[in-house]
Amino acid sequence: MTDFKPKPAAKALRPATQLVHGGTTRSPFGETSEALFLTQGFVYASAEAAEARFKGEDPGFVYSRYANPTVAMFEERMALLEGAEAARATASGMAAVTAALMGQVKAGDHVIAARALFGSCLYIVEDLLPRYGVETTLVDGADLSQWKAAVRPQTKVLFLESPTNPCLEVYDIRAIAEIAHAHGATLVVDNVFATPLLQKPMALGADCVVYSATKHIDGQGRCLGGVILASKAFIEANLHNFLRQTGPALSPFNAWVLLKSLETLPLRINQQMQSAARIADFLSDAPQISRVLYPGRDDHPQAEIVRRQMSGGGTMVAFETAGGKASAFAFANALSIIKISNNLGDAKSLITHPATTTHQRLTPETRAGLGISDGMLRLSVGLEDVEDLLDDLREALSAVARPHLAAE
């Protein structure tokens, strides 16, 4: 750390420029690309220097479980993009969610979460937190009256994802933040589907934003990662020691991959979003499809909120085939360019059947209450030529129209 030169105060750069240059710290070798520091520990010039480092009197690095130069560059670049004071990277998106919630609560506290969550997030809220004496309540995230009614004196955290997985519901972040703050609670937002480019939860009042960097931030199916963004005070009070002691550290190699990915994030998201909008319009006209959900369309259930708090509809499209699970499977199996996978945000277009994959552990009644039907498919639109994707979807629609042919 002592070889690094202090950086001048950052200028107010636009996002695309920040994503190429933000947070870069060069070693004495003056490398163009960010340096990759694959090291577990660091050496000190003297025992006195080591003592000062551990006391926090010298701001250098101590151990890569705590902090690492490559990881620190990724954290700073993400903070610049999000407009946050601080960031902490984690080994996965779920490590980020878990730390952001558990770092704030203790036995006797209460957490409110929107019912429409990714399956692993539901596990944290419904199963893990109650094991340690933290009570939880699930609400309809779109119903502000339910958030208000669920608040108790012990409520410490409100948690939601928006747009949701997989039905792409969009919640009024500003209004929910006001409910949290009126009762002395914080709001944590999982912003993974919107990406930091299309929605800014902290500007809408959220106290903490989490991402699975595995998704759009990497965007090429290569590595896992997560990141938590908040004020310096929030990080220091709730996460600094929790992360140091529990150890969900991001690999320096993965941080380096993510840094390189951020350079192309605006280009990828813009192209994927344009294709997603065309695909949503195309599917909405298909008689084999009973419902299309895309935040960029005027028929989206929360279209007015989308216009207020998002700058685009995103890269995800959810839709229902008209014949339940059999037709959904026939549709997915007939695709050739679009691959079946539970990942998302990739350069490759990916499709999954939520009822049997990401949300399979939920009961049929719970899935039905969330709007996840047996005929629903979730499409993550990639970077292929949109005309090829439309051709692929046309073939799949033919299989739904004649499911017996798809089975042959």
Could you write a compact summary of the structure shown?
This protein is an alpha/beta fold and 408 residues long. Helices cover 40% and strands 14% of the residues. It folds into two domains: 15-262, Aspartate Aminotransferase, domain 2, CATH 3.40.640; 266-406, Aspartate Aminotransferase, domain 1.
**Rounded Rg:** 22 Å
Number of helices: 16
Major beta sheet, strand line-up: 1-7-6-5-4-2-3
CATH class categorisation of the largest domain: Alpha Beta
Major beta sheet summary = 7 strands, mixed
| Number of strand elements | 12
Shape: globular
Helix content: 40-55%
**Low-pLDDT stretches:** 403-408
CATH topology of the largest domain: Aspartate Aminotransferase, domain 2
How far do the termini sit from each other? 63 Å
Short key terms for the protein model shown above:
408 residues; alpha/beta; Aspartate Aminotransferase, domain 2; Aspartate Aminotransferase, domain 1; 2 domains; seven-stranded mixed β-sheet; five-stranded mixed β-sheet; 16 helices; 40% helix; globular; disordered C terminus
